[in-house]
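Ticket #4471: structure output looks truncated?

Reporter: J.K.
Steps to reproduce: submitted the chain below (269 residues) through the standard prediction queue, then opened the result file.
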Amino acid sequence: MWKSIALGLSFCLFYLVSCFTNKYVLSVLKFTYPTLFQGWQTFVGGLLLLLSRKLGWVEISSFSWSAAFAWLPGSVLFVGNIYAGSRALSRLPIPVFFTLHNASEVVICIVRKLTQRERSSWTKTVSLLLLLIAAACLPLHDTQFDPGGYFWALIHFSCVGGYKVFQKLPKSSLLSDLEQQYINYIFSVLLLACAAHPTGDLLSALEFPFLQSYKFHSGCCASALLGFFLLLVTVRLKSHLSLEHCGTWVFLAKDPLIHGRRGSWTVCW
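Returned output as attached by the reporter:
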């Protein structure tokens, strides 16, 4: 029991600190170049995952090219998730971002109903409806409404929902969570590196005022390391706890009512 609680608290800690760190780099330092920022994170994550495999800390089995190719749609959704999430997080306060992120559960439910004819209990239906209402009401009461932030948040939670549905498909079960993430890292680095120049991020970043600042370097390094540790804790959490208990800890980590109202975050940022 205590081990499960420790895992859950570790997940909440890494999740929140990771979001705070990303928000600091994106909003406070205003490094709004997602192809470079997310490319750096996925590059470091893939490198650390490969190093952990070599040292025997994690187990990543050899997989066939056919299994990797079958997972590519998941990698595309992963890139859409992190790219759009970076865009949205740079524009929106954290509680607003979490509320919209939780709406991905509605996407999951709708897709499963359409493709798998999955039935939901009335309690789950009501909870999803409340999530949808909360997300839909945010723009109406947002005194600093940013249409671009909500647009990217819409793409973000749609990709998150699609990714979670794709993970549950039979062909995706051929790969473990770490193997899926390893492919995600490789695909993301290649795609984001190729997109850095056409989007203008590479040239714009060369003129970034904080480029030589220790705050910028420490923030980027901390962001990449925290993302990797969050991955490891998430995998351990899913392997040691039931789906319901995992969902509870995820809810606690992302519940905006726990973290405070928008006004308090506005002062912080």
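Triage note (M.O.): checked the attachment and the full token line is present. The two ends are 37 Å apart (CA to CA).
Status: closed, working as intended.
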